[in-house]
Design brief:
Blueprint: H1 2-31, E1 35-38, E2 41-42, E3 50-52, E4 55-59, H2 60-66, E5 70-74, E6 79-84, E7 87-92, E8 97-100, E9 103-106, E10 112-114, E11 117-121, H3 122-128, E12 132-136, E13 141-145, E14 152-153, E15 158-161, E16 172-176, E17 181-189, E18 192-197, E19 202-206, H4 217-232, H5 253-265, H6 273-276, E20 281-283, E21 293-298, E22 301-311, E23 314-318, E24 325-329, H7 332-337, E25 338-343
Parallel strand pairs: 1-13
Antiparallel strand pairs: 1-2, 3-4, 4-11, 5-6, 6-7, 7-8, 8-9, 10-11, 12-13, 14-17, 15-16, 17-18, 18-19, 20-25, 21-22, 21-25, 22-23, 23-24
Length: 345
């Protein structure tokens, strides 16, 4: 009986310890310093940002200067003055207000000295300088955008989301309509872009080429890597001439290309290689980039076969019942049958 009580007591203590450890971990995560991005690039501070009463406090001088303001400090009055584009902001440490061109502005929290650094609310600094600020709860990060030009055009209606994911929990902010102009702040990963709409809303859209005319070598390489990685999952899948679209039990050359491009890039390609060769833009054999489509003569046809250029002189393709989907060297044998290459993204 005594042994049973001791076991129960030990189990009870272990459970309490686990609960305390979990609560401590959650609290630590909630208090972790947020990552700050300015125009898509992470900012580094000598002392990390802190969150107090729901507001992010950052080193004042570092943020003012990063956003292009000139700073001066009056030690006698403990007053900072920041000047940018005709706007003059003055603030005396400890006050709950500041002035912008003599207009009094209320602060959500007074600035304070932490570890020898003057800390002020990030949103106040950035918005006072005319920039946009967005807190991302999913990643505990902050985006600051100082760009007011919209260089990218929406080509097909796409949802603007508050999280870079299509999960049910993701909140759709609104639909971005065709021809609407946006600014791309940064590339999150091969699938998502952080963007700024004309009304100042900051959110995320799919990076699939069908949705916007945004082009950049870095995102193209990320998408190409994703394309080859996804296609590689089907290595060994049997070849079947005329295989049905939309299934993965068997492929022929063009159904494989069609399936991979649809899944990774949401590109709706024609079913047969001859028609696929009319998509995108032509590129020379010496200018190939990973993800380009390669077209070849086959079965007496001018264009009767297609594969995906995988980089480093390789092709990801299928044409053989013995090999199924596999990598092939883009050697002289294939170059003799080569007709054209097309770039779709």
């Amino acid at each position: 009986m005594r042994i049973r009580k001791q076991i129960f007591r030990c189990a009870h203590i272990a459970l309490l310890s686990m609960m305390l450890l979990h609560a401590t971990s959650v609290k630590a995560a909630e208090n972790a310093s947020p990552t700050v991005f300015l125009d898509g690039l992470p900012l580094s501070f000598q002392t990390p940002p802190v969150i107090e009463a729901g507001y992010s406090l950052v080193p004042m001088r570092a943020l003012f200067e990063a956003e292009g303001a000139t700073i001066s400090w009056d030690e006698n009055t403990r007053t900072v003055t920041a000047v940018k584009d005709g706007a003059t902001v003055t603030y005396q440490i400890g006050d709950s207000f500041a002035y912008k061109n003599k207009e009094r502005l209320e602060l959500p929290l007074p600035g304070k000295i932490i570890d020898g650094f003057t800390m002020m609310p990030l949103r106040f600094i950035s918005e006072t300088l005319g920039n946009l600020v967005k807190w991302h709860d999913y990643s505990r990060s902050i985006t600051i955008s100082s760009v007011h030009d919209n260089e990218t055009t929406i080509q097909y209606g796409v949802n603007l989301r508050d999280t870079p994911a299509k999960d049910d929990d993701t909140h759709i902010l609104r639909m971005l309509a065709k021809t609407e102009k946006i600014h791309v702040i940064r590339e999150i990963n091969p699938d998502w872009l952080e963007v700024q709409a004309q009304d100042g809303t900051i959110g995320f859209i799919s990076s699939a080429p069908q949705y916007s005319d945004y082009t950049n070598t870095s995102i193209a390489m990320k998408q190409a890597d994703a394309l080859i990685a996804f296609g590689s999952k089907f290595i060994g899948t049997p070849y079947e001439f005329g295989a049905a679209s939309g299934q993965t039990n068997t492929f022929d050359c063009s159904s494989f290309v069609q399936y991979v491009f649809d899944h990774v890039l949401s590109k709706d390609l024609p079913r047969v290689s001859y028609d696929q060769a009319l998509q995108g833009k032509e590129v020379g054999i010496n200018d190939l980039r990973k993800g380009d489509l390669l077209f070849f003569t086959a079965r007496g046809l001018d264009i009767g076969h297609v594969g995906i250029y995988a980089g480093n002189g390789r092709i990801l393709q299928t044409y053989s019942k013995e090999l199924g989907v596999h990598f092939t060297a883009f050697d002289e044998k294939w170059k003799k049958r080569f007709v054209t290459a097309r770039r779709l993204f």
